[in-house]
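Changelog note: in this version the structure field was regenerated for every chain. One regenerated record is shown below for reference.
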Amino acid sequence: RLFKDAQLRIGRFTGFGVNLDALEVTVKRDAATWAVGLDSPQLKGLVGLPDAAELPIALTLDYLRFPAAEPKVADAPAVDAPDSLAAVDPSSFPALDVRIAEVFQGIEPLGSWSLKARPVSAGVSFNELDLNLKGLKIGGRATWLKSANGTRTTYKGRMGGGDLADVLIAWGFSPTASSRDFHLDVDGDWPGSPAWFGMKRFSGTLDASLRK
């Protein structure tokens, strides 16, 4: 092949459900893979695109930055926000191996993430979940499937961490309980995407353990 590498600068990129500003892209050819480097204020890292269709795409990021959370208004009534991923088709996901060193919400650090996504009938499965959300660690597996009635997420795994009081404070709640460590075994489902989890929409079992 004559093509070896290229460099691009894109003022604004919109696609795959994301908006990226001042995106710099480098493309290099390895033995059997296209190595695509991405660098913008929202994310930085590498995408490995293998020639073999049966192999997963490798997404390895130094950081990923989501928009900052909307500020809470004192004494405002609770409003159920819409599903932020409602427009995403779960059956469009390719096979992905994802590793992200640092995930942020605005300037607030959430933690590191890793997972494997694999296409399944009518959707995608997420396996080997290892997510950190402000001290709340999430492991296990999930599926996100579409049907005539919309989409639905199932999750089976364990959520846990160290001091529950620290996790509650990080998420903006009163530290009503403390612990040396805690975990919550979850087996259930809810309508919508994985991002639209809510206790009032959840159906399944929860088994909590807290050690002081």
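Spot check on this record: The longest strand covers residues 108-120. The mean pLDDT is 89.
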